[in-house]
Hints:
This protein is of the alpha+beta class. Helices cover 20% and strands 31% of the residues. It has twelve helices and 39 strands. Strands 6, 7, 8, 9, 12, 13, 15, 16, 20 and 21 form a ten-stranded antiparallel beta sheet that branches.
Amino acid sequence: MVDIAGDGRTWLLSGPGSSYALHLSAADELLHLHWGPRLALADAEALAARPLPGYWPFESPLDGREEYPVEGGPRFVRPALSVRTEERRGTEWRFVSYETEGEELRLRFDDDGLAVVLHYRMRGDVVERRVTVENGSRARVELLRADAATWTLPDREGWRLSQLHGRWAAESRLTTAPLTYGEKIIGSRRGHTGHQHLPWLALDTDATEEHGEVYGCALGWSGSWRIAVAQLPDARVQITGGAGYDDSGLLLLEPGESYTTPVFAGLWSDGGFGGASRTWHAYQRAHVIPDAERDRPVLFNSWEATNFDISEEQQAALARRAAEIGVELFVVDDGWFGARTSDRAGLGDWTPNPGRFPHGLKPLADRVHGLGMRFGIWVEPEMVNPDSELYRAHPDWVQHQPGRKRTELRHQLVLNLAREDVREYLWERLDALLGSAPIDYVKWDFNRCFTDAGWPGEAYPQRLWVDHVHALYALLDRLRAAHPGVAFESCSGGGGRIDLGVLSRTDQVWTSDNTDPLDRLAIQHGFTQIHPARVMAAWVTDSPNTQLNGRVSSLRFRFVSAMAGVLGVGGDLTEWSTRELSEARRWVELYKEIRPVVQHGELYRLRPPTGGLSAVQYVLGEEAVVLAWLQAQSYGEPVPAVRLRGLDPAASYECRETGEVHRGTVLLHHGLRTGLKGDLDATVIRIRRV
């Protein structure tokens, strides 16, 4: 909802529990007023009437108060907008107009033909912000930087900054530290979202998991990005973020051209980190994730079972075992195409290997469908091996710098999707592939970073950093429109491309290449700070975990760990014993029963995975599910009690431990507490109101 003051210079956006207000001063300075608890328009007008505080020499009256600081004038904070023409630098804008369309508020400013439009939309309690820059002048304009938003937080002492950091196989690890004066920068200069940071952060002063104020921001962009958090000299905090890591140039806008930033979304919550997470999850299920109301199927993926050594009959044997334990989607991973017998060849040649699939993929897909499962494949369309038919035909199609060595990572190069001929080739090959067999699912991978981001012959080669991502989005959109029955998963060596932008075009994401069930607890704990279980793919693989660390874990621990998101299986089922297959079938059956609650319910993180007992709870209507893992016990100490959340304290609930794996008891007291006792390493507890 958007409320507008009578003079048309104060705007208030409100959701169920929060409000966001801004005001245009008499000098046409756009000032931030309020972001926090819900308030009325009259309250916002009263805030607008307050005079700006005084300032000392060498300080700016605008710093820390402007809604979207631009380069130029009496400003010394980080500018969100930086432009160049042949004659001048910086921006001197004037307010032109405002308009509303549905839920969106648009504020238009002008600087001698260069229009800047600020977009606002409140969805639930999440504020979506983005900016459009339109070149209406007769000269070209270089956009050095165009951030999506600057967020301003109130004056507080003792701010803490939470972020998700990591690396390959150790993504999404949560860390919290005091925010100090100066700037903190997170981002990616790698051409994709990156394993090192998810584009999300949260700030608080004294919040717990379920209590206290939390401000959060998340960027919807799948390329290089940057978010800067600055604590200013007067203790105010501003957060500025958008596409691109540095200020070396985004795009060159010719007359008549425009650029719209990705969405930079933000929220305020007084329900602690858990309340903020649940708001993020509800927002993504309602407004970001395609077909979010549908359950994601139980998946089998062949990678850890077979690696590159695959054949039609071998995959068919795995499919039969997968069907027997209740799998609903069978996915053939890397190795089905071209000369792909290792990671050294074949990328770019998206036709089935004739020695492995002599009649193409259709016979195997038909056999999988005959077993009652859907059929999926792995692709990595943005990459090419030098040892491939595609590269031999078009070596100029890759990103490269003239006169410099073409850097190979994982024996592959990055295709320049900013080129129209490359985009059209990929569309034709992938469209033909999806039409050649009854394919229901595509795992879309991206296994290396940009290193030689050059474009010989292009007048402004820097634009490939932005145009590559726009081309990826357009290709996914086009494929989804042409093949509406096909689901897509985003993967990038695990969790290297997870953000609100790619999630708006894919059905789920591969959280990490690390399938160790104990490591996954910490990865999933961090991931759910921003993203819902509905998109969090997790697999049960073999023990010992030969792919990573050699750790031995029970089948029940592996299943309960993976059941916290979208359940998948990735072990070599042809080597599993009859007992293991029988137990796996029971776990899959149980997951299908609790799946609606896990994938669509509200998530409560009951105890973090810091050792000892870890537990999460999902609540949907009258039902709840608790997943708990006992990682270790010291000195014979009893397992601590766990307080449940999200239930009616006046109601009674039936509590049932399931899975036939427990050794101990479950205690329930008026729907408020449950205790796990005994030598127990993992369990599923189902709770129903009676």
